Structure formats: structure tokens, C-alpha cells
Hints:
The protein is built from two helices and five strands, in the order E-H-E-H-E-E-E. The N and C termini lie far apart (39 Å). The relative contact order is 0.16.
Amino acid sequence: MAEKLAIGILWITMNERDWPTDEIGNRQFLLDMVQQCKDRGINVGISTKKSDWEQIVGASWNKLSKLPLWWTTLTGSANFKNFVPFGGWSTPSIHQYVSDTKGGCSVGSVNLNWKP
């Protein structure tokens, strides 16, 4: 018997170092990936920052702006204060504001995220 896994949101991470330089191909790959998730009833969001988004799909592309955005610019502050709109998003849903900090309870390195 197959077990079912409940997924709240599947976040597609877009870090510039992990993607090819083909903006058109990257756009189509993302559209296909999002459609596959939707076809399976899986909610999907995008996890990236402005510079990575522009490098991967181009500054003017906004076809996924209806999806939630997990903004990954490391500002050190738990807020959206320094967010600059990109990709059609006027505000993010979540902000990763610190990376690789020591976790509590002997947990190794963790990222700190903020959601209003």
C-alpha cells in the first residue's frame, strides 16, 4: 500500500548557481514543473531572490507572479522592509533573512525565515 504525503507547498528553489544559462529553456522548465504540480493537486511556490531570478529567467519575466514567493535575500532583519519588486511580485510571502546560523538544541546550521 502506498503512503500519502501531505504537502502544503512545494517550493521550487532558484539559485543562480544551480541553473543553466538558457533563460528561454529555464522559463519553459519552470512552467512545465508548475503545471505538473498543479495537475497533481500540489500547491507550488518559488524560492529565490531578485538577482537569481533575473539571471535564470530574465528581469522582465513575470509568468509565475501569482505563486507565493519565498524571498531569500539575506538582510539580517525579519521583515519585508528592503524588498524590491521583481518577477511581478509586489511582496513576498516568506523571507529568509539569515543563512547558516547555529540552531538550538544541538541542531547544526539552520536558516532563519520570517512570515507575517
